[in-house]
Design goal:
single chain, 272 residues, alpha/beta, TIM Barrel, eight-stranded parallel beta barrel, binds 3-methyl-2-oxobutanoic acid, 3-methyl-2-oxobutanoate hydroxymethyltransferase
Length: 272
């Protein structure tokens, strides 16, 4: 465990492994900007994922495909600037690691050097083996991501549950074992049957973090805007909303508009 200049003990990949060993669940949320990262890091989250879901949540794109490496570095830098404790993992975006292992390494190095992130995440198994190996060989921690991998949405065709059939489930197990053997420090499993996710978590020694993968894994991740109720339309079965911040914001903005129109804001104390 390393100690930040603030005196706060920072979460490391080794600490996550120790959490799995002692059966302590790992909490992970996304963040894409300084203010949100400051709040969730201060609340004690273990891992912050600068997810390429920024493409949907921050930019309003339908998929994660359009976001670029430069965009991801911008978001990751803003998050790193806010964080004292959490481990910051940054998604390598679509098109920045699948082409060749050289390109993968170059992208991962840019993320680590320019944003100060602590680790990278990539989607896929066997098909990106060389890229994963090359990034790891440079001493960069890698988190894997299997199951529903949104960067492959046009191959899947839908966002429904993955690996329900035997062949796909077996490939997922093989890929998970491969990623562990290569040296990944953790694995995200997205939207797969809970029994399969639990089996993978039991068979692997590295932490397995689930999203829509049930409670038998080593930790959970959600998109922060979804769990806070800032995004309102996205309502998958696995999502628990912990607040209605979107509703609160709408009310606050309506209140402000009323006050401005009624010349109630600013009042005498709110001016010079
Ligand atoms: O980009 C993202 O937010 C993710 C999580 C859903 C795991 O990859």
């Amino acid at each position: 465990m390393s100690v930040h200049k603030s005196g706060i003990k920072k979460v490391t990949t080794h600490q996550l492994a120790a959490m799995k060993e002692r059966g302590e669940k790992i909490s992970m949320l996304t963040a894409y900007d300084y203010s949100m990262a400051k709040i969730i890091d201060g609340a004690g989250i273990d891992v912050i994922l600068v997810g390429d879901s920024a493409s949907n949540v921050m930019a309003g794109n339908e998929t994660t495909l359009p976001i670029t490496l430069d965009h991801m570095i911008y978001h990751a830098t803003s998050v790193v600037n806010a964080v004292d404790r959490a481990l910051v993992v940054v998604d390598i975006p679509f098109g920045s690691y699948q082409g060749s292992s050289t390109e993968a390494l170059r992208s991962a190095i840019r993320i680590m050097k320019e944003s100060g992130g602590h680790a990278v995440k990539v989607e896929g198994g066997k098909e990106i083996e060389d890229s994963v190996k090359r990034i790891l060989s440079a001493g960069i921690p890698v988190m894997g991501h299997l199951g529903l991998t949104p960067q492959s949405i046009y191959k899947f065709g839908t966002y429904t549950v993955r690996a329900k059939e035997e062949a796909e489930a077996q490939k997922l197990i093989d890929d998970a074992k491969l990623l562990e053997e290569l040296g990944c420090f953790a694995l995200v499993l997205e939207k797969i049957p809970s029994a399969l996710a639990e089996r993978v978590a039991k068979e692997l020694t590295i932490p397995v973090i689930g999203i829509g993968a049930g409670s038998g894994v080593d930790g959970q991740v959600l998109v922060v805007h979804d769990m806070l109720g800032i995004t309102q339309d996205f309502k998958p079965r696995f999502l628990r909303r912990y607040a209605n911040i979107g509703g609160m914001m709408t009310e606050a903005v309506q209140h402000y508009i009323q006050d401005v129109k009624a010349v109630d804001f600013p009042n005498e104390k709110e001016q010079y």
